[in-house]
Amino acid sequence: MEPIKVGVIGAGSISEMHFESYQHHDDVEVYAVCDLNGQRAKAKAEKYGAEKYFTDYRQLLDLPEIDAVSVCTWNDSHAEISIAALNSGKHVLVEKPLCKTVEEALAIEKAVQESNGKVLQVGFVRRFGTNTQVLKKFIDAGDLGDIYYAKASCLRVLGNPGGWFADKERSGGGPLIDLGVHVIDLCWYLMGKPKVQSVSGNTYSRLGNRSNVENKSFYKAADYDRHKNTVEDLANAMIRFENGASLMVDVSFTLHAKGESVAVNVYGEKGGAEVEPELQITTEKHNTILNATPQIDALSFDFKKGFQNEIDHFVSCLKGDVETICPVQDGVEIMKILAGVYESSEKGKEIYLS
Ligand SMILES: NC(=O)c1ccc[n+]([C@@H]2O[C@H](COP(=O)([O-])OP(=O)(O)OC[C@H]3O[C@@H](n4cnc5c(N)ncnc54)[C@H](O)[C@@H]3O)[C@@H](O)[C@H]2O)c1
Q1: How many whole angstroms from 162 Cα to the centroid of ligand 1?
Q2: Which domains does the chain have, with CATH numbers?
Q3: Positive or negative: CA dihedral 40, 46, 48, 53
């Protein structure tokens, strides 16, 4: 069988996970790379043995031999590149968030519908963590019963990466669209993707990027500029669903908190579960409350394994073996929630989505 030829567009930090995972897959050849930064594209092409590299994604999409692309660019070009790729007959794996706005999300959805069966998978990588996959089996078997409440939190004390992440034009927002997208999607997925009814949220830009802080290092984007920051530093939200369930979220790039924390919990009528920081299932049996810890290799999200699972699933979808578990419709729904939180915060009231 001919290998599936893929192109990776955007050759920055996260592209490493895509390149590596494709490289580990026997049926895939990393064929081309594109980045606005030619040096970066060339370096990645050499490292991963890609035949061609470009600085204009349209040239990559013009190659008839390419079957699929990963879109790993800044959020502001996800829609444009994904739509162009679908129109060129390529399958698409697009990094989260699907894009910056609901209008863009709907345009991508339309392009998928008109693509003659091309696969578009949204990079909701947390769905591919072993902890999530294990818990999903318990939920699907009915062990937690009806899930009516979820709570997700991802708080950084000092962690605004700067660069494009801190530039609202290119990112679409701060911790909500960057970190919130992961934990909101994870809860929504585990809750069984209920229809969203309303969103009420707050965003705050009180602390800035705190570039004054000394003796504490944090991840910085390549083009970090301490003077540039147009995104929120904290967001919180209450999301109500049509089935009566609700989800509470808070996420920050910076906050006067004692330490970093990630916590994702779902609560059902028969049991509950802590997904992060470590998978644990709570239930009741014979009038006793039980905390059950699965014996699995990693109780927390394993970054490399999660990406490998995500890419393996994408490749299986391209081969027609399965349908993607992260279709464009899910990207649209999550985009509606994120946009709803920003709108609610701006208007100071609850936003009804249905
Ligand atoms: N799934 C995850 O856990 C995860 C983690 C980090 C980032 N991401 C997502 O991945 C994407 C990239 O993030 P990153 O951290 O790699 O950023 P990055 O800045 O390290 O890399 C992005 C690269 O894209 C290039 N680029 C931007 N616009 C382009 C265009 N129009 N054409 C070609 N190249 C272009 C830039 O030059 C840069 O090299 C973002 O959407 C981000 O939200 C996902």
Answers
A1: 13
A2: 4-124+308-327 (3.40.50.720), 127-301+333-352 (3.30.360.10)
A3: positive
